[in-house]
Amino acid sequence: MADRVVLAYSGGLDTSVGIGWLKDATGKDVVALAVDVGQGGEDMDDIRQRALDCGAVESIVVDAKDEFAANFLMPALKANAMYQKTYPLVSALSRPLIARHLARVAKELGADSVAHGCTGKGNDQVRFEAAVAALAPDLKSIAPVRDLALTRDKAIIYAEERGLPIRQSAKSPYSIDKNVWGRAVETGFLEDPWNAPIEDLYEYTQDPSVLQDADEVVITFSQGIPTAIDGAAVTPLQAVEQLNLLAGKHGVGRIDVVEDRLVGIKSREVYEAPGAIALIAAHEALESLTLERDLGRYKRGVEADWANLVYDGLWFSGLKRSLDVFIDDTQKYVSGEIRLKLQGGRAVVTGQKSEQSLYDFSLATYDTGDTFDQSLSKGFIEIWSLPSKISAKRDLRQQ
């Protein structure tokens, strides 16, 4: 029905008020769509009912946790994806998944528009709308906060006047987004980069300065994907969930970064992603054992490009798809086991083995049994350094 708009619904103040606000501004009935990506907190049935109580004509809840882990988090893990070498793309990975379901539901209902609760100065507006444009170019995207002048103070007044079931009526000190891959915290006193984060900020991780006895965990990978933890088979979702608990117990995955937003401003962000950081550390170690040198070097450049594309909202772009093909091909031998020691905020690799390993003990050892022919090195060095030697002679002639 062209007289409907599908709203990405979180259950919070802005999207709850956005239901009536959208109806008033556009004349369209609002269908609320809540997508469970492992954010925890409230029961999804309560969120579904709240949307109806706030005026939605229909409220849909999608359990997408396994889909998120398998189709979005595992590609990110295979890419060792870290924006600015620091941030494991917590929010950026969930947006294309939510957008996919927005586009799907809109098509199924015959709606001509979708909506989201993003502001006009963040990255998520771009991620939602670029994804929808790639999946369903005929759909119109509406952002009540950005396009329809829905400010927080107006939202509170609107909710109070209409008796909407919104628990939060006062300004929270932080803006928080979370899913099973991690948790993002911003605004409030964090907007001054000189202010250190306080312990109350964190939920997924315990204080790493309170030292606990170390835990060791063995992660088994098959073609770049974790398939077992300490010998027990796991799905991708279970791997992330279990490592969130194990690594989070030791404060692994706390990140404090001044981030370059796509919209051209810098923002100070605090993240915690214990499972993501532990898994990426293990996966990188296994790649160092199983990828040949030049492939590993080249892949690191591709990883940075991949992370930039995903951060910038281009999950469904042609370049991203092509990079996925390359990355998937690199993973065919990335199978084996990695042992991690978890303690004091760190996930340290203490053991690595693989049937696909390129490490040859007889070549690497300096003891009896060494099969490396050291006499070959002299000639290799002479040929390797020949271009530098020739150019150096030219430089000397010009002096």
Automatic annotation (TrEMBL):
Gene Ontology BP terms: argininosuccinate metabolic process; L-arginine biosynthetic process; urea cycle
Keywords: Amino-acid biosynthesis, Arginine biosynthesis, ATP-binding, Cytoplasm, Ligase, Nucleotide-binding
Keyword Amino-acid biosynthesis appears in the UniProt entry: yes
InterPro entries named among the record's database cross-references: Arginosuc_syn_C, Arginosuc_syn_N, Arginosuc_synth, Arginosuc_synth_CS, Arginosuc_synth_type_1_subfam, AS_cat/multimer_dom_body, Rossmann-like_a/b/a_fold
GO molecular function: argininosuccinate synthase activity; ATP binding
Gene3D superfamilies documented for this protein: Argininosuccinate synthetase, chain A, domain 2 (3.90.1260.10), HUPs (3.40.50.620), Single helix bin (1.20.5.470)
Catalytic activity: L-citrulline + L-aspartate + ATP = 2-(N(omega)-L-arginino)succinate + AMP + diphosphate + H(+)
Keyword GTP-binding: no
Arginosuccinate synthase-like N-terminal domain residues: 4-165
Subcellular location: Cytoplasm
EC number: 6.3.4.5
Positions of L-citrulline binding: Y87, N123, R127, S175, E259, Y271
Domain Arginosuccinate synthase C-terminal residue range list: 174-390
Binding residues for L-aspartate: T119, N123, D124
Functional pathway: Amino-acid biosynthesis; L-arginine biosynthesis; L-arginine from L-ornithine and carbamoyl phosphate: step 2/3
Residues that hold ATP according to the record: A8, Y9, S10, G11, G12, L13, D14, T15, S16, G117
Subunit organization: Homotetramer.
Family: Belongs to the argininosuccinate synthase family. Type 1 subfamily.
Name of this protein: Argininosuccinate synthase
Gene behind this protein: argG
